[in-house]
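**Backbone description:**
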Amino acid sequence: MSQDTKVKTTESSPPAPSKARKSLPVLDPSGDYYYWWLNTMVFPVMYNLIILVCRACFPDLQHSYLVAWLVLDYTSDLLYLLDMVVRFHTGFLEQGILVVDKGRISSRYVRTWSFFLDLASLMPTDVVYVRLGPHTPTLRLNRFLRAPRLFEAFDRTETRTAYPNAFRIAKLMLYIFVVIHWNSCLYFALSRYLGFGRDAWVYPDPAQPGFERLRRQYLYSFYFSTLILTTVGDTPPPAREEEYLFMVGDFLLAVMGFATIMGSMSSVIYNMNTADAAFYPDHALVKKYMKLQHVNRKLERRVIDWYQHLQINKKMTNEVAILQHLPERLRAEVAVSVHLSTLSRVQIFQNCEASLLEELVLKLQPQTYSPGEYVCRKGDIGREMYIIREGQLAVVADDGITQYAVLGAGLYFGEISIINIKGNMSGNRRTANIKSLGYSDLFCLSKEDLREVLSEYPQAQTIMEEKGREILLKMNKLDVNAEAAEIALQEATESRLRGLDQQLDDLQTKFARLLAELESSALKIAYRIERLEWQTREWPMPEDLAEADDEGEPEEGTSKDEEGRASQEGPPGPE
C-alpha cells in the first residue's frame, strides 16, 4: 500500500519548472545606468540634427558618402529602438517609492506624449526610397522628434557635473553652432534654388575655380550666416524678394539670439558671483569699513591678506550657511564624512556615542588664523576648544618669541576649559599663549554648543568628565580635596533643596486646608443669612399697620394661630 501511495504521489506531482528567462532589469531614472544611457543617446540625436540637414542641402555631400550615411542612419535607428525598450524598463516614483512593476511602467509610458513622439520618430519613412531614390534624406526629418532626449541628457549632466557654469557656457555655444549651421544650410539651398552666381548675394557660381569644392561651399555658407546672425554687416545687399525675406528672418533670429546669449551669460556670471559670495566672505564691505574708520595700513594689510588667503586656497568659513538647505540628517552625514575623523582624535570624545559625535560635528566652526596671530593668551577665559586641521601653532612665552612646543595637524587644545570639572586648579582660564606660525585652519567648539548637546546625553557628559579628571590628574592640575569639598558642598546644597521642597509641600497642604475651612464657613454664613431673610419676609410693614388700625384689630386668636403656623413652617432649607 505504501508503494501505491508513492506511485500516486509521484504521478500527481507537477513537472519541474524550466529555467525562466532573465528579463531586463528596471532602471532607476536617477541612477548611473540611466544617466549613461542618456549620454549615449546624445550621439544619434546630434547626428540627425546636424548631419541630416547638411545632407539635404548639400547634394554633393549626400552622393559622395552614400554608403556611410546609410550605415549611420540605420545605426541611429537601432539606438532609437533600444531607447524605446529602455523607456519600457525605466521605473518612476510614486509617493516617493520607485515602481518596478513593468506592467504599470508600460501602461504609464504609452499614455504619455513621449511615447507618441518616440513612435513617430521611428516611422519607416525610408520605404519611400523605393520610389524617390536613396538621395532624399529629407524623408528622415521625423528623427528630429527625439530631440527631448537630448535636452534631458543635458539637464542631468548639468546637475551631476562639478562645473555647472562651464557646462552651461558649452551648451550655449553648441546651440549657437547648430543655429548657424542650419542657417548656412538653408542659405546654400536658397542659393541653389535662385541660381548660383545670379547676383552678389547668393553663393558664387561653382564653375569658378575653387568654388566647386564641397568644403569651400560649406565654409562660405557658414561664414556668410555668421556675419548675418551676429549683425556684423559687410554682406552683399539682397536683390530679390526671397533674399529680402531671408535677411529679415535672420535679423529677427539674431535679435532673439543676442537676447538669449546675453541673458544666459548674465545668469552664469550671477551664479558664479553668488557661489563665491556663499563660499567666501565679502571683503569689499570690510575694506570700505576700514577705509571709512581710518584703520592703520598695517592692520588693513593683514585683513586683506587673510581674505586673499581664503580666496586663493579655496577655504570656507561658513559651512553651516552653505549646508543649511539640506535636510538635517543629510546635513549631518555630510558633516560627519568631512569632519568626524578630526573630532574623533580628541581624547575626551573617544568612545562616545556615534549620535553624540554627529551632533558635535554640526557645531564645529572652521576658523583661519594669519601668521603671528594669537589664538589665545594666558589668563584669557576659556569659552571654546580648538582642533588643528591644518597648519602649525606654537606655545610661546609672554614675550611672543620663545617657543616651548609646536602643535601640528590633528592636535587639539583647550578641551578642559569647556567642561566644568570640579577641582580644576586652572579654572576656566587659559594657561598658555598659542600663536599661529603660518596660516592655520582650526575647528572651534564652544562651551555653549557642547552644553546644549550634552543636555540630551547625561551619560556621555559623565564619561567626558571622568576623562577630563584623568587628564587633569596626569597634569597635576586636579585638587582632590577641593573636588571633595565641592562635592560635599553640592550634596549639602541638594539636601537643603530637598528640605525646602518638603517645607514647601507642607505649606501647600496647610494652605489647602485653610481654603477648605474658609469655603465651609462662607457656606454656613450664606445659609444663616438666607434663613433670616426668609423669617423677616413675613413681618408687617408700617403702611400695613396703619391700614390695620383704620379697619380695626383682627381677632386675637386667629392672628396668633397664623403667626404660630408661619413660625413653625420657616424658610426652605438649602438643597
Q: What stands out?
A: Confidence is low (pLDDT under 50) at residues 1-20, 555-560. The radius of gyration is 47 Å.
